[in-house]
Structures are given as structure tokens and as C-alpha cells.
Amino acid sequence: MKFNELIDHTFLKATATPEEIRKLCAEAKTHQFFSVCVNSCHVALAKAELAGSSVKVCTVVGFPLGAMAPKAKVFEAQNAIAEGADEVDMVLNVGWLKAGQADAVRDEVKALKAAVGHRVLKVILETCYLTDDEKRLACRLCVEAGADFVKTSTGFGTGGATPEDVKLMVEAVAGKALVKASGGVRDAAAAKVYADLGARRLGTSNGIAIVSGATGTGY
Amino acid sequence: MKFNELIDHTFLKATATPEEIRKLCAEAKTHQFFSVCVNSCHVALAKAELAGSSVKVCTVVGFPLGAMAPKAKVFEAQNAIAEGADEVDMVLNVGWLKAGQADAVRDEVKALKAAVGHRVLKVILETCYLTDDEKRLACRLCVEAGADFVKTSTGFGTGGATPEDVKLMVEAVAGKALVKASGGVRDAAAAKVYADLGARRLGTSNGIAIVSGATGTGY
Predict the structure, then answer these.
(1) DSSP letter assigned to residue B7
(2) Is A16 close to B40, i.e. CB distance below 8 A?
(3) DSSP classification of residue A119
(4) What ipTM was estimated for this complex?
(5) Beta-strand pair B35-38/A35-38
(6) What does the pLDDT read at residue B213?
């Protein structure tokens, strides 16, 4: 398996400058990553930098808390697509999930999928805050809402992907959605673990370390 | 000085449930805080809970990274006002500020002020990521853009308010905007320090500890 094709090359820090986004895009072209994953203010820049390449632009919505109003998440997604986003990684409403408001959670994901259309919608569960039952419920709601991927983590919570969570999510979606592991995917060994468990996308800022077999640093 | 009138009673965790927001609103009524500060998915609920009271609804926009696309920040603010928000605390684009894109930073704040109209717009600088010169520049840009307040911190960065930063910001805005201290305002002693330095609003989840003179915990 070629890890480069699994990687969303990610840089989501508040402090990210346009220069850093240009560097991220250049790296993604060099290593032929699947996409770059950037905050929505950088979508137009990333699209321009990646023109003529096969690297896609992935952005985040309602990120990282997931507590933005549903209409605002829909608008942020639509605006990002208008500015060039190919894929949208939304954060689900964690508080509503934990309160048992399953319909509200599902309806929001459904509204985002309608806004994103044929493009790929990934739904971040932020597993560090969820019980195993809540993770399974979230996977079910995402499948019912038509999400393309369920994704473990924002990288801004109290924890990132774990092998246990990726395994649970792969089983829970049962082939009706794909799984993205993100947060703490630091090196080739970790990438192999997640890929072997069935993850079909890896969100990481350590993509270069992963494809070169080196040990990465940071998120 | 009555601290209660300075306090935006704040609960912004990803995991916040409607029940926790109801409790926050009840506490704000009991202690007559200035407002509750909640994520935008909770604005309508907070507005309903606070009906008939003088406690205002404050919400956050582009929170906490500030890296949302400007149009999405504008929409989130407009939608929050339509759902009942009285005040909007936006996060400025930290990456653009650090890259020296002063016009882009100012234009975004100006667009938010136009969207918010006569309501109060606070601009979070996220001082933990800025040099003193960047803090002063941010204050100047916010004043030029018509912001009502500059605010130190989201509470989700690497640091919160400090007496040094509040002093710097009060001097930098020179009476043309007010200052809100937030992040790490834990007890009455800290509140008094910030108020004495000229802060005219305090963002904290420790409002009850502050008004009762007890020692608070957490953000």
C-alpha cells in the first residue's frame, strides 16, 4: 500500500500564515499526497497553489468544537466549495450527541451532505469525548445521513486516534462509510496500524515523515 | 465595583449539553451577570432561557481558531443575531496578522461590525500567539474597524489573559474601544487586578466563585 495516497496533509493551527500554506501545498505536490487539509480562510489560496496538480483541497467546518449553529456550518461548507474545496471535514455536534439528541445530530449531518453534494463529506466524531456506545451511535447516525467518511479526531481535543477507536468505527459503519484516522498519526508504524485496521484516509501533519519512514513529531 | 456586572458567564466546551446551558443561564439570572457566553448552536436556547431577564446572550464567531473564511464569519454572526445574540465575540485571523496582512485583518473586522450593527462586537486577539508589537497592531486595526471591545483570549490557546497584556491593550486602544480580559480569570483577586487595570468585561467560567469571593477552578 502506498501511504501517500491515503494522506490528507494537514495544517490547521490558528497561527498558520499564507506562506506556511504555500509550503504545505508544495510538499503535497512533491509527495503526491491525496489532499491538503486547511482551515477555510486558506481554501482559495490552496486551490490556486495546487492548480494543475491532482492534489485535492480538503477543509474543515465547525472546527474544532462542532458547536457552531447548523445553518452556519452549512454556509461555511457552501462557501468553501465556492472557493475551491473538494472535500469537507465537519465536526458533529458533540454536546447534542452526548445529550441523546440523535435526530438533531443526524439532521445536521444530512444538511451538510446536501450542501456538499457529490463531494466527499467526512464527519469528525471527536472520539476523545465519547463513550464507546456514543461512538457507535455517531457512526450509525452518520451512515444514515449519507456521510462518506467518519473521522476520529480534530487534533485539538484531549486525545487523537487510537487503534481501538478505528477498529470500533470500521465495524460500526460496516462498509457503508469509510474511516479516517487523525490526531497523533505520527510515523509510518502508526500509519500502517491504522491502514491495516481498515482506515482509508489518514489526517496528519507528519506525512513526509510517514512516507520517508522516519519518526514524525507533533500532531 | 460590582464584579457581577462585568461578567460574561462563559461555557464554550465542545461537550456542552443543552442541560448545561440551561444551568448556565439560571446561574446568570441568580447572580445578575452581564451575559452568558455560549457557542452559536446554543444561542436560541439561551435566549429562550433568559427571556424576561436583563442577562444578555453573547456568542462566539470563528471560534476558537479565527481561521474561518471571512464570509463564513459574517454569516455565523448574522445567523446568531437572528437567533437572539446580543453580542458577538469574533476571533481575528491570527495567521494573517502574523503575516503582516493588516488590511485583510482590518477588512474582516469591519465586515463583522457591519453585520453586527449597533450590537457589541468584541474581537479576540488570542494574545498567547502574538508579540507585543502584534498585539498593539491588532488593537489599532480593531479600533480602525469600529470594534467595540478588544478581548485577550479564547481560553483554547496556549495561554489566557495576563495583567501585562490587559495593560498593553488598554493603552493601545486609548479609550477608543473597551477591553475584555478572558482565559484564566479564576477568582475575585484576579478579577480585581483586571478591573483595576481598566478591563470593562471579564470572560470566565468562574463567575460564581468571583462574586462569592471564593477560589475558582478551571478556565
Answers:
(1) E
(2) no
(3) S
(4) 0.96
(5) unpaired
(6) 75
Q: How far is CA B104 from CA A46, A170, A210, B16, B134, in A?
A: 17, 43, 35, 33, 14
Beta carbons of B124 and B91 less than 8 angstroms apart: yes
* Cell, residue B159: 495561554
B219 confidence band (pLDDT: 50, 70, 90): very low
Q: Is A167 exposed, middle or buried (0-12, 13-18, 19+ CB in 10 A)?
A: middle
Q: What is the pLDDT of residues B99-135, one digit of tens each?
A: 999 999 999 999 999 999 999 999 999 999 999 999 9
Mutation site for A-interface testing, chosen from B36, B71, B219 by largest number of A Cβ within 10 Å: B71
State if pTM tops 0.80.
yes
Structural contact between residues B32 and B5, judged by C-beta atoms closer than 8 angstroms: yes
CB pairs under 8 A between A and B: 129
Q: Which of B79, B91, B126 sits opposite A69 (nearest CB)?
A: B79
Say how many C-beta atoms besides its own lie within 10 A of residue B186's C-beta.
Answer: 19
Secondary structure of B97-151 in HEC code, one letter for each residue: HHCCCHHHHHHHHHHHHHHHCCCEEEEECCHHHCCHHHHHHHHHHHHHCCCCEEE
